[in-house]
Design goal:
It comes from Mus spicilegus (Mound-building mouse). Keywords: Hydrogen ion transport, Ion transport, Membrane, Transport. The N and C termini lie far apart (118 Å). This protein is 84% helix and 0% strand. By secondary structure, the protein is mainly alpha-helical.
């Protein structure tokens, strides 16, 4: 009876080790396939990042070029007051 329990425990441990080894092999296979697939996407990612940087730099340079003009335009609108009577205003006597 004791030998049988010990043999069952040993068989269970061996099966667990086999399962663990199989899992590691499959994980390595998955990692290598993922690395191969991501290698081509890595280039796309770099290209997208570079294009984004170029766009941001273009926006920043545009902002620097147009900053003074826009500020002058805004200040002109705010500071230049033209008093007018509203068209809906009615004079009551």
């Amino acid at each position: 009876m004791r030998g049988k329990a010990r043999r069952l425990k040993q068989a269970k441990e061996e099966a667990q080790m086999e399962v663990e080894q199989y899992r590691r092999e499959r994980e390595q296979e998955f990692q290598s396939k993922q690395q191969a697939a991501m290698g081509s996407q890595g280039n796309l990612s770099a290209e997208v990042e570079q294009a984004t940087r170029r766009q941001v730099q273009g926006m920043q340079s545009s902002q620097q070029r147009n900053r003074e003009r826009v500020l002058a335009q805004l200040l002109g609108m705010v500071c230049e007051v033209r008093p007018q009577v509203h068209p809906n205003y009615r004079v009551t006597v």
